[in-house]
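User: Hi! Is it possible to get a structure for several chains at once, not just one? Here's what I have:
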Amino acid sequence: MATEDLIARLSTDLQPSERRPVLSAFAMPLAIGIAASLVLMLAWLGLRPDLATAMTTSAYWMKFFYTLLFAASAFWLAERMARPGTSRDQPMVFLAFVLLAIAGIGMIEMMRAPPLARHHLMMGGSADVCPWRIVLLGIPLLAASLWAMRRMAPTRLMLAGWAAGLFAGAAGAFIYAFHCTESAAPFVAIWYTAGITLTALIGAVAGRWLLRW
Amino acid sequence: MLAAEPQLKALMIAGLAGDKAAYRGLLDTLARELRRYYTRRLAGIDAPAAEDLVQETLIALHTRRATYDTSAPFTPWLFAIARYKLADHLRRRRLRVTAPLDESFPAEDENEAAMARRDLDRLLESLPAPTRELIRQVKIDGLTTAEVAGKTGRSEVAVRVGLHRALKSLGLRARGEDG
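Assistant: Yes, the chains can be modeled jointly so their relative placement is included. Here is the combined structure:
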């Protein structure tokens, strides 16, 4: 077909376009992904038994807000990476602040703790399972984010997949926090972040293949 | 290089709202610009594919037009798509280009490459002159060790050992251990 004919066809069929593309691409996949991850957590791990009392502690909210703000800034980044020619500076700066905050809180806790208690602040009782569980809870969310991104137009596929993985990992960690009874900031800074990083790596590799359009 | 950004952006916004005439005008202009873009970049590599890529990019622009954020400039959006379609095409054909994909909109990767070159130059600068020369000749200018031996009058074994040591100390410096 000649290019002129193509142009004629594209412009005669023109309809006013979708006004909220990000919302319409992400809403449905994310709703399904979050539901799947939540059900997985409840069926497989279960809520922490002391949830009501834990909610009165600052440690609970530290985990809650670390993972929530991480997920929010990573979503912002992923949404940018799903659209051609956009800058990722602002979400990256936001993300850096979130990481600095948890690192700072973790350090302060470490310095205040007696030396013998420091090892436990970092390792808790579940360091060996925490990152893997976060990855598994993040997988439905990663699938959902990549599915949504495919309906947009990512042009740097590994970076886009990485951003989707950061979001999926952080949202998975947010959901995991409803099960996990660890309360030390150094633990969260290390092992939660490790789980998120692993999910992001999977996202980067998967994105390279799955995001082609 | 392009028709002015404000005009293109105005046409695009009108097109998004459903204005067929504006959209057609936009696609006509872009077809010309894209043809130039792809022809220049595929010359001598895969020239016949240029027109296919023009069409593919126009279709991509059309189907993904909602991803354009009307508060942002239009041309970076367009060329990010054009660059992606070019890279995708070259990857599928397993072709390699040595020319930069797009000189008018340098990707960050190109800045990184430039920074890497500067870092390398600085590292080389920190080595003693004979060592530096050796690395330059073999690793950058691509001479064989035999050729370097011939030029410097040393034995080939001496050149190889020298090169091995030079690279080792370069590696240490690169890791900041100052070897």
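Chain B touches chain A at residues 15-21, 23-24, 27-28, 31, 35, 51, 54-55, 58-60, 62, 64-69, 72-73, 76-81, 83-84, 88 (CB under 8 Å). Chain B has a mean pLDDT of 81.

User: Great, thank you!
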